[in-house]
Design brief:
- The complex is a heterodimer of chains A (705) and B (637).
- Chain A has 705 residues and is mostly beta strands.
- Chain A has ten helices and 37 strands.
- In chain A, a hairpin with a 6-residue loop joins β23 and β24.
- The radius of gyration of chain A is 31 Å and the shape is globular.
- In chain B, 18% of the residues lie in helices and 39% in strands.
- Chain B has an eight-stranded mixed β-sheet, covered by helices on one side. An eight-stranded mixed β-sheet of chain B has the order 27-28-26-25-32-36-35-34, with helices on one face. A five-stranded antiparallel β-sheet of chain B has the order 22-21-20-23-24.
- The chains are: A mainly beta (705), B alpha+beta (637).
Chain lengths: 705, 637
Amino acid sequence: LLEKRLCKDTLGRLVVFMYTCRTETAVYKYHQFTGMRRKSVFIVFVLILSLESIGQARQEAKFGKVKPIDFQPTVYSVDSGAHAVIVADIGSTQVIGNSKGWFSLESKHYRRAHILHKNGYDIADITLYLYTDEDDEEELPRLKAVTYNLQDGEVIETPLDQKSGIFKEKLSKKLVALKFTFPNVKEGSIIEFEYTKTSDFLLSMDPWEFQGEYPRLWSEYTFYVPAFFNYVFLYQGYREFDIKDVKRRRQMFNVRDTRGTVASSHSDFSDNVNEYKWVMKNVPPLKQESYTSTLKNHISRIEFHLTEQKEPLASHKYLESWEKLAKDLLKAEYFGEALERGNGWLSDLISPAISTATTEEDQARRVYQYVRDHYTCTNHNSRGMNQNLRTIARSRNGNVAEINLLLAAMLKHLNIHADPVLLSTRSNGYTYSSYPLPERFNYVICRTIIGGKAYYLDASQPQLGFGKLGYECYNGHARVIDDAASPVEFIADSVVEQKTTSIVIVSNENGKLSGSMRQVPGYFESLTLRRRVKDDGKQEILNSIKRIYNNSNIDISEPTIDSLDNYELPVEIRYLFTMAKPNEDIYYFNPMFNEGSKENPFKSSQRFYPVEMPYALDEIFLLRLDVPPGYIVDELPKQIMVKLNPEGDGLFEYRISESNGIISLRSRLRISRTFFQADEYDMLREFFNLVVKKHSEQIVFKKKK
Amino acid sequence: MTKAKIVVLFSLLLSTCLAAGQANYSVSLISPALLEKASAVKRNEQFKVEIVSGSKIKWKRKYAITILNESGDRHAEFYEYYDNLRDVRSIEGRLFDANGNKIKTLKRSDIRDNSAVSDINLFDDNRIKLHNFYYRNYPYTVEYEVEVDLEATYFLPRYMPQPFSGISVEESYCQLICPKDFSFQFKAFNYTGPPTFEEKDGKKIYTWGVKNLTPWQEEYASPAKEMLTTSVFFSPNHFEFAGYEGSMSSWKELGLFQHRLNLGRDQLPESVRKRVRELMAQTDDPRQQVTLLYEYLQKNTRYVSIQLGIGGWQPFHAAFVAEKAYGDCKALSNYMCAILKEAGIKSFYSLIKAGQGEYFFMPDFPSDQFNHIIVCVPLENDTMWLECTDQFIGAGYMGDFTDNRYALLVDETGGKLVRTPRYSKLENLQIRKTIAALRENATLEVKVNSQYGAMQQDNIMRMINSLSRNKVREYLDKQLDFATYNVNDFNYREKKGRLPVIDEELHLTINNYATITNKRLFIAPNMMTRSYAIAAPDDARKYDIEMKTEYREVDTVEIQLPVGYELEVFPKDVIISSPFGTYSSSVKLEDNKLYYYRVREQFAGQFPTSRYTDLVEFYDTIYKADRNRVVLIKKGL
């Protein structure tokens, strides 16, 4: 039969993630949009998800068979506060022969939802995405949608107007969104849709999600796998299946090719099909908590990947090994092919960029800086190129893969070792080291080896230093795309955001206190500061430092920020200050200044899934303070040292002492682990509670009698 | 035309010719005064609006802008919206280096064409064309030339050479070119004198020009940007719009046009009419009747926005809304008017510019300055305003979305401009009583009763109506201003209506709110109502101060203390009275209990720039007073 179409399929397609949890932050202030015209004013409210106890199972529902009794529940025990409930969510996919001489996926999706409250109305707004790429396409041959209301004991049906009620929005040359909303929706309405979607993209099959923004009473998925295809099923989540089943049957496959000018060819055959079925009942939503990389890591879902084709088709492996994937990628036009060419035209760009640099390292630095400073990344979510290197170089913008592949091409042009690296950012979710699945990745960086030392480079992020990566990249397993497809681990624990602050305060002749402050924030905090300087100007940032103590009796002078342009190092902030001469009988003084922790980062009283912190922490605060003349120390905070757990994954130290009229304080907060299980949550919360408490304590001075 | 004017015009035309030929964009030619506090300098701009016919406008713009540094990059991007009534005919672009040498020309294939459907619309016809040279060697200059066709004379483009802060302008002019019989109004801000005028080839040409404008800047509580920089607004005396005709010569005329768009769209199906009659029979009180009908609307419709062509201005038929149970602000307001008409109650379909802080309006300049529709119901002693897109708001209340501004009431007699209500400090009232007990381990057990009136309740109203009880708890778990605490119980009671009130009761346990050491106890008695100061400006304030909202907060706090302490330091009473508001707070200790009393009033008003430092000090004093601590010491030490 046909050529396999591995590459374009897997890399070109934009994966639209349909999980619509919109809870990045807990927001209660509503947003108001006041657009151009009265075309566009409405009040939008961001909903917050919650987790509820598990309720009872419901029976399977069927399209159109809505009975008065179905309207009865006003609360469902799976989530007593839910504003809408998905009563049934039933999907299936089968492989069918198509008219392009190959196979397509035919998926059916039926959903019934019960709207309990006005705030659940958004479940009635539906968007479906259809992708097209040259010959391959997705189509929606059938769509039905009906709203049911109970009126005087009778079920009233209002169907969607297929002609005027469905809107097509062209999102790009390849992607169209179909949008519709259910008519006649009220509190208490039941809505149902059912559609069939066909897709020629065998290698990017939509995953099935058993969990989402609204609770599901019955979520079921069936996948019919023909004997000539092998698939791998990947499940994630913290719940067991209520039903898991497999049956065998026979199916006819009709494959024809009607595209050619000659008479169409066709072949009919039958083969065994395994019918896999999974059901989950009463699945509550997961709520977004602080320190979550992405809910995608935690929701219950299953995904499918075609691994090989067998008889009666020509035998072919789709999912073979990392080495094979790397080899294919290196040959692919949208990825590595351009790296292998000579790219002589690059000389015109490189020569001025490297100027007089002669050593490999200097040259690599200059090239990296050139790409970073002159090319704009317009999309940080991509694992392949949509345009060729020449176009990227001309238009000076591209997605993250394009920019870092351009960097790799330039290094190679200089005969400096360079390889692309595929990774998945934290917000894109984990990858599996055991399955070479390109669609799991969303980011490309570049590795270079100079003098035996490996440097990982990302030229898509302005102001990032040579050899530095943003914390979004520290998400575990990644792959170097070279002959060996070497695995590489970017471990969040290994990134320590280290911050040191030291303050010295001396009293001068007239009793005034004057001090100096020096702070080296962590690398990521420095990066944020650099970006603020870029957006608002250095003067504005210096002014904002002056404003830190606006509401106290401290006056700041001569603020400076060093190392702003040395992107490989953290910045250094310094300033001098004076404090009014105390004259009260009793003088209270918080020795942490503005640097103490004031908020517990773990606000929620409970946690249902792991805590994922982006990096480890080590914050040191040092103070040296003259006892103000005419005063004696009446009370100092107590010293403590606490470990987060017996293993010492976290440490809090607060040492304070007075000797010869000088007070010294050292506070250190260290967290060296970034991943904590849900059952370790209380321990974390209590630990930070203690830190905040200690950092609020005062020194008490008394006037000498 | 006087001689002087001719000279001005001539020099303007001359410079125009230069710009049209080969302009010199060398950065060294920019006057140093224009570089101060600027991230970009507009070098020249031609903004030409030509009215070709009643239904066609050709709009040509050409401008060059020099980007001085990274914060100016945002101004280097070109974008132009289009839709069914607006067509982008051509786009040209050029890039110049610091010396003014042309280094690149826009390629058509580099123009991106994106959907621009608004987030709040289910669907509309908005799309956008974008281009960017992505050049990063500063300074550099981009020059763009765009031609747009507008298929209506309803909207005449507004001229604003400095649409953003941080941009200065070397030279810019605007021309309105129209047939002899076309008449229009204009209104200019920060522009002295009339436009120049000439007649050429049977056309009238009006020209406004500016030179050497320094940047305007963003300031706290400043007037609207339209007042801070040069802007010219146009409005046609006669216009055409998708087959309709109308006039903006007066508010009455603009209202008549809207009325024509709405005409015949108020037919209700019999089922709805029957329901209206039933509801009307329930009470004789007109206020009560309107409330019942409004609640019927809220219960039976929802907001879904679909905007196509004239559909951005013309409501769906009432019968459509009745059938689909949805619509946008126009459709729902028109539906509400139809219901009220059926009930025999007079109402007005009312145009308004909605949005928090959107108070800028030109009442003396009839034109479409609106973005939203509400319904006005004049009753005997009172007028009720109905926000038809909101599922929860009480009948007659407006909140900060539509309060205190102009609205255009529309009916068959035309348009009439009126003002919507302004909420006073006695209505925007917050009364809070906090009773707490402090344990030996520094834990505070607290009960807080708060009453929120009018605009003080807007956010809480939104929260309690939109979130389930579990989610309200999650919110409260995260949003209170304490380091570590638990919400043990909470309760809300809502009184809807023209002046809504919400009662809130919270039971909290706060860990380590007070600090207890070996000898001492530190506690700030103001737990719940702490203010946040605004920042002092770094330079002299430029613009007047406009405070739009007023309110009043009253707090009483009672804290039971652990036994065995006596007073060490006590904050002094604070009393402030200023043009911006008043503040008083006091603490006393009696029977081992702390009593705290606080009243804050914020006034609305317009104040001169020179008062800004006073305003900062006013906030600052309150900020500090709100955080005052009481220190107690163990007895016998």
